[in-house]
Amino acid sequence: MGCRVGIPRYGKTCYHGCNGGYNLKGNRNKECLANGTWSGAEPTCEKVHPKPWITCPFNIYVDLKPGMNTSTVGDKWTLPVANVKNILTAVEPPGVSSSYPFPAGTTTVKWVAVNEIGEHAFCVIHVVIEDKEKPKVVFCPDRIFKVSFTNSPVWVNITRPVFTDNVGIVKYDPPLIDGKYFTRVEGRNMDFDAVDAEGNWARCNIKVFVGGYRCQLPPEGPPADGWWSCTWNFNSRFCVKQCHSGQKVFGMSVSYTSCTDSDGKWRFWPQQAAPDAYCVGYKDVNASVPCDVGSIRNSSFNQLGC
């Protein structure tokens, strides 16, 4: 700064100015007084501090690798541009850089530019780590059976399914339960979905069977010399003794058994004839022809063979 004037004489005016990058503070003009001094106080030059500005790069998008819950962004990372030097600071999150382990989802990165007198400006970008991996079903009960002979609701224990996910499960839809009341049904489906933060989901389907019949099998199992042929009629089951190929039932009865679901008890019909029914060798012989030695005529249910 200096006074630009020729030979200082009374009444002359001095013009003060500042170098580039500085602003004048005080009176620019000073006048030479009769006593040989300059009028007014001496002006000063103050350094100019421009308002800071900062421009951020574009948002960053990266796909998360399978099995990982964080990711770096590598060469996609660039710094913002600002009008201040060496005073550029990334304040959120602390320590953020191209090698920073960004979690799945969206992370907001904030940069702040500060000039020498503390004035500041900021900008933000979003680093989006996209998780496209679905949760995995570790365990899912396939079917659950509960025997019940009543029409009243019964409690059924449900083993909770187990899921895993690279970034974690945020909710179960519907919430997992340890059991529920059911009435008698055939094959009721229950779906449990595990959902992660990105909305990826996996499903466990459990089929619940509640019910059954008291009359499952004849009380003594299959006969030693044949097998049971059974049918249902409403809530009752009827079984007829059958013989293997080349044999037929011999006796006064064909050994019917029946059971009602109300009491679950099996009954022979007719009761007195049940022990007499056996499977024996058989061949068709005309009624007018006598049976071979060791064979007899079987007239049960109009069977005329030997």
What is the secondary structure topology, with strand pairs?
Blueprint: E1 2-4, E2 13-17, E3 22-25, E4 29-31, E5 44-47, E6 54-55, E7 60-63, E8 70-71, E9 81-82, E10 88-92, E11 102-103, E12 105-114, E13 120-130, E14 136-139, E15 143-147, E16 154-157, E17 162-164, E18 169-173, E19 179-182, E20 185-196, E21 201-211, E22 227-233, E23 236-242, E24 247-250, E25 256-260, E26 266-269, E27 278-281
Describe the model.
The termini are far apart. The chain has no helices and 27 strands. The chain has 306 residues and is mostly beta strands. The chain folds into 4 domains: 46 residues, Complement Module, domain 1; 77 residues, Immunoglobulin-like (Sandwich), CATH 2.60.40; 76 residues, Sandwich (Immunoglobulin-like); 76 residues, no CATH class.
What labels describe this entry?
0% helix, Immunoglobulin-like, four-stranded mixed sheet, mainly beta, 44% strand, 4 domains, single chain, rod-shaped, 306 residues
CATH class of the largest domain: Mainly Beta
Order of the strands making up the biggest sheet = 7-13-12-10
The figure for the number of domains is 4
For this structure, the quaternary state is single chain
Q: Which residues form runs of ≥5 with pLDDT under 50?
A: none
Measured distance between first and last alpha carbons: 142 Å
Strand residue percentage:
35-45%
| CATH architecture call of the largest domain | Sandwich
Q: What is the CA-atom radius of gyration, in angstroms?
A: 49 Å
- Helix % is under 10%
How much is the average pLDDT?
A: 82
Helix and strand run: EEEEEEEEEEEEEEEEEEEEEEEEEEE
Largest sheet: 4 strands, mixed
Shape: rod-shaped
Query: What is the tally of beta strands?
Result: 27
